[in-house]
Amino acid sequence: MADTALVIGGTRFIGRHVVEDLLDHDYEVTIFNRGNHENPFADHDDVTRVEGDRRDDTDLKAAALSVQPDIVIDCVAYYPEDVRVAVDLFSDVDGYVYISSGSAYAAEEIPKREGETALCDCTDEQATDDSHASYGPRKAEGDRIVFEAAEDGVNAMSVRPCIVYGPHDYTERLDYWIDRVLNYDRVVVPGDGQNLWHRAYVEDVASALRVVAEEGEPGEAYNVGDRRLVTMEEMVDLVADAADTDCEVVHAGEHELAAAELSPDDFILYRDYPHVLDTDKLAALGWESTPLAEAMERSVADHRDSDRDGSEHDPGREAEERVLGVLDTL
């Protein structure tokens, strides 16, 4: 008899890939969500959907009783209370895996290591706040709840992804850069192009969640990210190679950007101080990451098939053209 998996979420981005990975490894899968987004598995005989709100304890308890899963992958636990309820309801499963975040780390260290790098504190106010500023503290508090549950015998673990990219990415962060490469010969990159923000290919995040559920140690956290990191300029070059096109990367410092009333932070995926996660602990479980060229080829192909353009993150091409004009006069 196949193992059963319950995926809380399961239709948008990471959760969608989790379901596909579980199916590829012969799990019987149930997804639990409110139905606010189109279900890509509606016609899939091996995926059952249970409708409910994970923040409604009655709904979640009903799902736990009806599915009786062997493992649970929790994709949409955004508040500490979500995790607290889940580790109680799923206290007898073989593996409960909470998706935390690299944002849970409080210290700027290179690299950030599980069990060594300090986590964010979380106040009572932050625990219920839904702002971006409280995201890291809320995720860190969820980690601590997982650790406490494991001490009480619950097979609970957490996975901390960095910036996730790949097919079906509704955040469109990478889509902005793909769109630039596909449509312009010259792409403005802030600074010297050497800034480093660790990214994780979504299929690798999905496989990490399954591997941790199967092989992880209760009470442990596992970082996940590409095993080979690339700078922002190298990322743009990877996009160009995957798209089989050429583009010129143009570096723009703060002075040149300021001429167009821009700053480096106006460019999505730019980060001044490097954000790097150590992934050795996850790799020791047998997890592997997709080669970057292959990951980018899939990401570019999906972008071309979608209507995503990353325009939400666009600093303005007219402003970029002014920057290019300034640089051309130097």
TrEMBL record:
Residues 5-225 form the NAD-dependent epimerase/dehydratase domain. Residues 296-323 have a biased composition (Basic and acidic residues). Residues 296-330 are annotated as: Disordered. InterPro entries: Epimerase_deHydtase (IPR001509), NAD(P)-bd_dom_sf (IPR036291). This is NAD-dependent epimerase/dehydratase family protein. Belongs to the NAD(P)-dependent epimerase/dehydratase family.
